[in-house]
Structure formats: structure tokens, C-alpha cells
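We emphasize that the prediction below concerns an isolated chain of 126 residues; any contacts that depend on oligomerization or on bound cofactors are therefore not represented. The input was used exactly as deposited, without trimming of termini.
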Amino acid sequence: MSKISTLNTKIAAKITAGVSTMWCAYAFALIALISLPSALKTGDPIVIVAWVAQTFLQLVLLSIIMVGQNAASASVEQKITETHTASLGEFELAKEARKIAGEELIALKVIAMEMHQILRDVEGKK
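Result of the prediction step, given as a C-alpha cell string:
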């Protein structure tokens, strides 16, 4: 990645972090409200609807949507972390169960060999 791309990425990240706050939404709402009296003075419904749609909603909702996306992302990230932690715990339990099963299998093989030896000894005494 070039130095300019890296710089652009850092600048974009800083701007995004700033715009995705409720404080930015409040500031945008205040900026939008400055032009409201002029829109209302026209009395033209198209101008008023345009002000609401193009000025107020676009400015304010941009920040609010970004705040909501950040909250949703944080929630998903937390769930992923919890799932990962639980999976690691289950993996450790499975490893322990496999170790115990291996030990039990060895013990069963020893018992089977001893039983075979006893049967041979009994057969040999007949």
C-alpha cells in the first residue's frame, strides 16, 4: 500500500469515527435547522419537502445510521467472541475425554490380555 493510500485510509477512518457519533448528528441537525426558516418562508411544499428529505434527513440520519451500525457490529463481535470462547472450552473438554478414553482402552487391553492368559492357564490344567 502506498503512503498516500495509507494516509487516505487513516483520514477516512478518523472522519468516519467522528461522523458516526450522536454529537455529530446533533451538530448536523443544528446546521440543517439554520436553513429551515428560509424553506418555510417560501410556502412551497416542494421546497419544504426537499428541505426535509435532502437537508435534514440526509444530514442527520447519516450519523444516526452509522451509530446504529457501530452498535450492531459491537453486539455481533461480542457474540462471536463468546462463541469462540465456548468452542475453545468444548474443544478442551473433548481433548480431555479423548485422553481418558485412550487410557481406558489401554486398561481394557491389559484386562483382555490377562483374561486370555487365565483362560490359557485353565485350559492347560485340564
